[in-house]
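Hey, quick one: can you model this chain's 3D structure?
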Amino acid sequence: MRFDASNRLFLIWVDEQDFEASWKLKRSVELLTRAITSYVDNFDRTRIEKMKVSFSHKAKSGVFQAISDAVFVVRS
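Sure thing. Here's the predicted structure for all 76 residues.
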């Protein structure tokens, strides 16, 4: 069983016109680049404390901590 407590940045694609086709947005390099660039340009380091997530794992002892956030890539 693999386990990794690394930091994560989730990309969530949403096509407001066709929700079922949202997965196709990952092919849109322009839309993805715009969303990631906006996230990086507007990143506020003071928010890091609020982004920390503590969790445990059934096969490992101890409490783990990671930094996690999400970027919503939306086509309307």
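One thing worth noting: The CA atoms of residues 15 and 22 lie 5 Å apart.
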